[in-house]
Amino acid sequence: PAFTPTEMERLSTEIRQRTGQLLDGLPRGAAFDWVDTVSIELTTGMLAILFDFPWKDRRKLTEWSDWISDIDYLDDVDRAYERREHLRAMASYFSDLWEQRLGQDEAPDLLSRMIHSEAMAEMDRYTFIGNLTLLIVGGNDTTRNSMSGYVYGLDQFPDERQRLEQNPDFIPSAVQEIIRWQTPLAHMRRTATEDHDLFGHTIEKGDAVVLWYLSANRDETVFERPNDIIVDRDNGRRHLAFGYGIHRCVGARLAELQLKILFEEMAARRLRANVVSEPDRVSSCFVHGYRSMQVELSEY
């Protein structure tokens, strides 16, 4: 219920207002980190609103998301311990919020909806933490890296950027194209529940399989010039960056809305973000994203 079209309409005014205010406050004529200043700030703020999370502590959501998806801890005992402590802090913080909202009337925030859901009200601790992890990473890493991919990708394809600037009607298709091209989560691992023949390859029940969304979104049998950004691509929405079927991203509409509004507000101000140096990328085979990216704004 938190992601219905009606809820998206309710949230759109606030998203547009926050996005516009942030863009109006960005420096002109000086380089800044787009990832931290724009992508993280917009998506972390949105996540805080969804959880009705204390605003002053909203950057904790970013910190926890980064530690959840960190893979360096695999080879570093000290880092693994530090990661565990961060996740314990996250669990403790959200457990306190849960206790505070027990017995209150249902509200639009995600914790309240869990409390008032027959399916989720009696979750054990580990299921609760698992759901939090999915929501925090799903609502943070994904959209923020698409927002960064929008700037980096269009900088790589300046002719397409110019076409988008001259044709704002392309924005809805450009949103899908950037999500396809960026694919912020590269893969997902599943377990086969039955034997299956896939293009002549036998997958047996119990086999571990990896679904490479990044590969699917570059499928040359589906997408013409799959490695290029084409802002008015007619089948861009066929991408699999949101997953598929029962595993499709529950927040897909919200992600699309945030990106659409960012594109529109940039266009309304005739702003262009120019990448001034190669970005620092996330060290992960799962999160396909950016740690930092220096840009300078110009007007067209």
Brief descriptors of the model:
300 residues; mainly alpha; 3-stranded antiparallel β-sheet; two-stranded antiparallel ribbon; 11% strand; globular
Q: How is the secondary structure organized here?
A:
Layout lengths: L4 H20 L7 E2 H18 L7 H10 L8 H25 L8 H6 L9 H32 L1 H9 L4 H12 L4 E5 L4 E3 L2 E3 L4 E5 H4 L35 H17 L2 E5 L4 E2 L8 E3 L1 E6 L1
Antiparallel strand pairs: 1-9, 2-5, 3-4, 6-9, 7-8
Helix pairs in contact: 1-10, 2-6, 3-4, 3-6, 6-8, 6-10, 8-10
Q: What is the approximate shape?
A: globular
Q: How many distinct beta strands? A: 9
**Fraction of residues in helices?**
40-55%
Q: Round the Cα radius of gyration to an integer and report it.
A: 20 Å
Overall mean pLDDT score? 94
* Topology pattern, helix = H, strand = E: HEHHHHHHHEEEEHHEEEE
What share of residues are in beta strands? 5-15%
> In this structure, how is the largest beta sheet organized?
3 strands, antiparallel
The secondary structure category is mainly alpha
What is the count of helical runs? Answer: 10
Distance between the termini: 40 Å
User: Which stretches are low in confidence, meaning pLDDT under 50 for 5 or more residues running?
Assistant: none
With strands numbered from the N-terminus, the spatial order across the biggest sheet is: 1-9-6
Can you put this structure into words, describing what you see?
- The chain is mostly helical.
- Helices cover 51% and strands 11% of the residues.
- It is built from 10 helices and 9 strands.
- Strands 1-9-6 form a 3-stranded antiparallel beta sheet.
- Helix 1 packs parallel to helix 10, helix 3 crosses helix 4 and helix 6 packs across helix 8.
- The longest helix is centred in the middle third of the chain and has 32 residues.
- The N and C termini lie far apart (40 Å).
